[in-house]
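re: that complex we talked abt at group meeting.

here r the seqs, copy pasted straight from the sheet so there may be weird spacing, ignore it
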Amino acid sequence: MKINGVTIADTFAEAFTMRVARLVITGRTAKWAREAATKLTGFATSVIGCKCEAGIERELTPTETPDGRPGISVLFLTMDKASLPEQLIVRVGQTVLTCPTTACFDGLPDAPDRLAVGKALRVFGDGFQASKVIGGKRYWRLPVMEGEFLVEETFGMLKGVGGGNFLILAADADAALAAAEAAVDAMTSLPGVILPFPGGVVRSGSKVGSKRYKNMVATTNDPFDPTLRAITQTALPEGVNSVLEIVLDGTDAPSIEVAMRAGIRAACRPGVNSITAANFGGKLGPHHFHLRKILA
Amino acid sequence: MSDAVMLSLAARPDHVLLADCIAADRFAGLDANAIAALPVVHGRRPGTLGEFFKVRGGHSGVVRIEGDVSRVDGIGTGMAGGELTIDGSVGRDLGLAMSGGRIDIHGNAGDNAGGAPPGAARGMSGGEIIVRGNVGDEAGARMRRGMLAVTGDGGRGMGIGMIAGTVVVFGKAGLGAGRFLKRGSIVALAPIDRPATFRYACTYHPPHVGLLLRYLRSGVGVPVADRYIGGRYERYSGDLAELGKGEILQWVGE
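got the structure back, here u go
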């Protein structure tokens, strides 16, 4: 299969079931909502080193937010149920609570699994906090030096999908980067999906474990490293001198598929040799995104 | 089972009619005959609801009352769920000690709306009362939880002895509003007589008030002007003769 002369490999991306929460952060202006969201989702690229994966899903207009102010929707994922509230409590407490003018709302109100995030954060109020039930939902009002921070008592948790991916194999680094940027532009703001890595792009894709260091969980993906072509069992076709990866997390598999379709099509541009995907033989992750099936 | 239970006033009571049997959650388990057989007190004489109201439908937690029931007291007493809508004014003790559901009055309500029974420590402990008109004295008295919104004026002692919860009053509130408040909020969109035992804290944009007023506008259909939703409010803490963790929030402008 080829798109714009770019070969689509007959393979699949292998992804995992994760736990996901959606937070809606609002602020007096979009700038302050984004400031909080950027800090909240910082250092959250991969569960390998960050214990969580997070990213901005999209910007919200005032008509889309509970309090009628500009907002940002954020997705937050962890590998297990227990660590999601732990991460949220620490991160919301240090990044959203501290950010001027912001408020924090649940973006998955219909999810039956509830995480007591606001309930835990309330103790920052040192006994001066107060709760309000509005429209059947409980909110906590925390007095702060600026005025008050409003946070919803519980946040919904769903089973999500982490680790959707595709690799852009290009003739040179400039072509790979241009294709990756085009892919990210096409996927940005699609509902239910985040790209947790810097600018949505990964240059250091990894393989499981290590050939040399026993305690390493992940090491460089040497079959796709062009500088190691001559000394390792390479997976790179001739003429490929740079590879970039796009990793996607989302609320569900269909959302990942929609985003992968848009991203891969946008990445098929001059200078790109082929598009492939990372998997582990299909034995580790329950979600398999077959590239050719997605693009058919 | 019907979509809603309709109560139409068939005979206007000569005296005050105590109909504390009318509650949406109670009607959800009863057919029309059983609802009509519920006990009321007319003057000092016992009777049945069916002597005064024509009952249509049954087994529904959505209840609508038609007719002038301004002489009917105790509607919604102890209600724990469902929706009760009244197209007109009601008597005293509306939603007395209710704990859930919503009562929506398209008219005025008498004294002690959302209040407590005589001698009881707690009044309303959950749910919502919307009065699209005025209320009498001591509305929301000893409220423990829940919300009372009044689009008109409040009488004397609004929210007196509140333990928690929220009272919103769009019009004027009479003397003694919030007296003996422990916790809870009285949101006043018009001038309010504050007890001397409330102390000014600051002027700010309380985020929960904007959220609450937006909910009233979009979720309940109460017209609320933008200037109140995004407005500034003076916060007065009180009652300092009590616990002092309550507040009167007075709208002061955009």
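couple things i noticed - The mean pLDDT of chain B is 96. The longest strand of chain B covers residues 80-87.
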